[in-house]
Amino acid sequence: MRVLAAMSGGVDSAVAAARAHDAGHDVTGVHLALARNPQTYRTGARGCCTLEDSRDARRAADVIGIPFYVWDMADQFHDDVVDDFVSEYAAGRTPNPCLRCNEKIKFAAVLDRAVALGFDAVVTGHHARLGPDGLLRRSVDLAKDQSYVLAVLTGEQLARAVFPLGDSTKAEVRAEATARGLAVADKPDSHDICFIADGDTRGFLERHLGSAPGDIVDGRTGEKLGTHNGAYAYTVGQRKGLDLRVPAADGRPRYVLSITPKTNTVTVGPREALAVDTVTAARAIWHGAPTPVDCDVQLRAHGEVVPAAVTVEGGGLTARLREPARGVAAGQAIVAYRPDAGGDIVLGSATITAGHASEELVRG
C-alpha cells in the first residue's frame, strides 16, 4: 500500500512512519508547514508548528530511509483552525483546535491531496486504534488516548487512516525510537495550543478581538459582581481569574455558569449550579449504531466518561446523562463510546450546543 506519513517532528509520528515502512508499505513522509511566520511559533519542542519541528521530521525520515517533503498549508490552517478558534470564542463557545485540525487539515485537506496524488492512506502518530470493522477505538494507553479528537472523522476518512501506535504505550514508543536511533526519542510532548506562541490564550484573543468591557453578574440575583475586558476570555466551569469585587455571602468560590455575547455578560454562581443532566449537540457524525443507545459519553478532552442514553436525529444529538456533569461548555465535542472487551469503540461525536438541568436536578 502506498501511504503518506504525516510527520510533525515528534516521536510518535516518527515511530508511526517507521512502523508503516517496516510493514512493507511504500511510505513517503510529509511535514505540514502550518505557521505563516514560523519564527513566532514555539521553540524548544513545545509546539508542533516550528522550524525546529520541520528539521526534526526531516532527520527522522532520513534515518527511516523514506522520501520527505514539506507541504505549505499555512493559509488553510489559519482559515480553518485559527480563525475558527477566534470566532468560536467570540460567539461564547469553547472550541478544541486539535479536533478542528484533525477534521479540516489532516484528514480533509491532506487526505484529499494524498488521494489525488495516488496515495492509498494517511499514517499518523495518534494514539488510537482501528478495529477490523473499521471503527475507531481507544488506545491501550488510556493516558495518551486521542480517540476523542479523532471522533469527528467520517467512516470514509477512517477507511483511509492508519494509526500504528494504538497498541503501544508512550513508554514503549520512546524505547522503540531510541532503539531505531531516532533523535526525537526523548523530545518532550507538545503542550497547549500550538499557534499561541506564549501560551497566553486570553492575550491572543484580546489581540484579535480587542478589548470589550462588560459585566460579571450573579446567576441567581443578577447583582453585578465585577467587570471583564472581554467575555471571550472565559469558559463555562472556570473558577480562577474571575477578579470578583463582591465576595460570596457564604465565602464559597464561584464559577462561570454561562457567557452571553449578545449582552457581553459573564454569569457566575456556585459549583452546584453547573450541574446538567442533558446535553444537546449539533453536526453529529454517527457510525451506524441505532439510537437511542446506552453508552458512555466524554464531554471534553481527557475528561471523565459519564453513562448516558444517546439519541441522534436530524443531524443533532441528545445525551440524557445517568449522572450529572459539570463544566459542560458549548463548542466542545461530545464523544459517545460503547464499552467493549477489546477497547472502547467510538460510536460518534457532535459539537455541544448546550447543557440543560432538569427540574428534578434543580430541586435536588
From TrEMBL:
SUPFAM superfamilies reported in the protein's UniProt record: Adenine nucleotide alpha hydrolases-like (SSF52402)
Swiss-Prot/TrEMBL keywords: ATP-binding, Cytoplasm, Disulfide bond, Nucleotide-binding, RNA-binding, Transferase, tRNA processing, tRNA-binding
Compartment(s) of residence: Cytoplasm
Enzyme Commission no: 2.8.1.13
Annotated catalytic residues: 101, 194
Keyword tRNA processing: yes
Single GO molecular function: tRNA-uridine 2-sulfurtransferase activity
Positions annotated to bind ATP: 6-13, 32, 125
A GO term from the CC aspect: cytoplasm
tRNA-specific 2-thiouridylase MnmA-like C-terminal domain ranges (all copies): 277-352
Main location (coarse class): cytoplasm
Site (Interaction with tRNA): 126, 332
GO biological process, one term: tRNA wobble position uridine thiolation
UniProt domain tRNA-specific 2-thiouridylase MnmA-like central: residue ranges: 203-269
Region of interest (Interaction with tRNA), residue spans: 144-146
Enzyme class: transferase
Annotated InterPro entries: MnmA-like, MnmA-like_C, MnmA-like_central, MnmA-like_central_sf, Rossmann-like_a/b/a_fold
Catalysis performed (reactions): S-sulfanyl-L-cysteinyl-[protein] + uridine(34) in tRNA + AH2 + ATP = 2-thiouridine(34) in tRNA + L-cysteinyl-[protein] + A + AMP + diphosphate + H(+)
Membership in a protein family: Belongs to the MnmA/TRMU family.
Name of the protein in question: tRNA-specific 2-thiouridylase MnmA
Primary gene name: mnmA
